[in-house]
Every structure is written in structure tokens, then in C-alpha cells.
Amino acid sequence: MTCVECKKELGYLDHKNAIDSLGVELCSHHHGLMLELIRKKKTPLEAIQLYYGLKEAGIQGMLEWWDGKKSIDIAISRVKLNIEIDSEYDKLTEDQAINQLEEAMHSFKNGFTTIRIPHILIRNYLNETVQNIIGIIEGLKANIKVIN
Ligand SMILES: [Zn+2]
Predict the structure, then answer these.
(1) What is the model's pLDDT at position 66?
(2) Distance 80 CA to ligand 1 centre (A)
(3) How far is the CA of 40 from the centre of ligand 1 (A)?
(4) Which of 88, 101, 116, 148 is at a distance of 20 to 30 A from 42, taking alpha carbons?
(5) For the chain, which residues make up each domain, given as ranges?
(6) Considering Cα of 54, then 56, then 57, then 62, what sign does the dihedral take?
(7) Distance 54 CA to ligand 1 centre (A)
(8) How far is ligand 1, taken at its centre, from the CA of residue 37, in Å?
């Protein structure tokens, strides 16, 4: 058992604490940093789980990336992909839905692609979600090549 961030060897308690609270193998230092991020930025737990799922698959994203207007849950800057976690997908109002569509439109205009992922997918289908995001990244890379 090692920390997925710094590869430090984890003791039983550090491992148990991190798995119980975040579901990710982190040392007490990196566990603490993530708890701070959640407290300060209200980062969804699932964003952290997806961030590390992507990292383990070799995809380096950025958590809570500031795009100039708002904080993006996870950004993959190489391909200008923004990933937002929907924590209350089932309670989406029409006002929120039209705001999200408008945000997606603005980011498209700026060359960014935004995908929204319901948190339940990350809880129950993390590997499949990671695989699909990798596919989206490959597709975006291919499109970038065509344009250039
Ligand atoms: Zn660590």
C-alpha cells in the first residue's frame, strides 16, 4: 500500500483513514491536503476519486482549475477538456440545466469541451468512466491534429 500521490509507504491506520474518508490511498499529508481542498472549495468527493482514477491510468488532470470565471472540478489542459461532477444530478432544475448548457456553449466557443459526469457513475463505474474519458481525450487529440 503506497500513497497514489507521493508513493510513500502507508501504514495500516493512514490507509484506513484515507480509504474511509476519500476512498483513495493517500498518506496523511496528501489526505490532509485533499480534506482542505474539500473544505475550501467544496470539491466533490467523486472529483477527487476520478482525478486519482485518471492519474492511475496515466492521465494528469488538474483539480479545481480556475478558468477565469469559475473553478472547474477537473481540467485536462492538453486537450482543453473540462470535467464537471454533477452531485445532484437527479435534482437538476430547468434553470440549472439552461445555465449548464450556456456554460458549455461558452466553453465550446473558447475551444474547450465540457463534459458533466453524474457522481453515481464515479461511485459505481469508476473504471468505465475513466476508460470513456480516455476515449474522449484520444478523440480530442485527433481533432486537434486535424485542425493544426
Ligand atoms: Zn502522499
Answers:
(1) 93
(2) 27
(3) 20
(4) 101
(5) 1-41, 45-147
(6) positive
(7) 17
(8) 15
Answer whether residue 148 shows pLDDT above 60. no
In CATH terms, is domain 45-147 a member of 3.40.960.10? yes
Residue whose C-alpha is closest to residue 22's, from 57, 54, 52, 61: 52
Phi, psi angle pair for 118, to nearest 5°: -60, 140
Q: What single letter denotes the amino acid at residue 72?
A: I
User: What is the spatial distance between Cα 126 and Cα 129, in angstroms, rounded to a whole number?
Assistant: 5
Q: Residue 87 Cα, ligand 1 centroid: separation in angstroms? A: 26
Residue 129 C-alpha to ligand 1 middle, in angstroms?
Answer: 24
pLDDT tens for each residue of 14-59:
999 999 999 999 999 999 999 999 999 999 999 999 999 999 999 9
- Three cell numbers written together for 3: 500513497
DSSP 27: -
* Distance from Cα 49 to the centre of ligand 1, integer Å: 15
Residue 104 pLDDT greater than 90, yes or no: no
pLDDT at 136 (0 to 100): 97
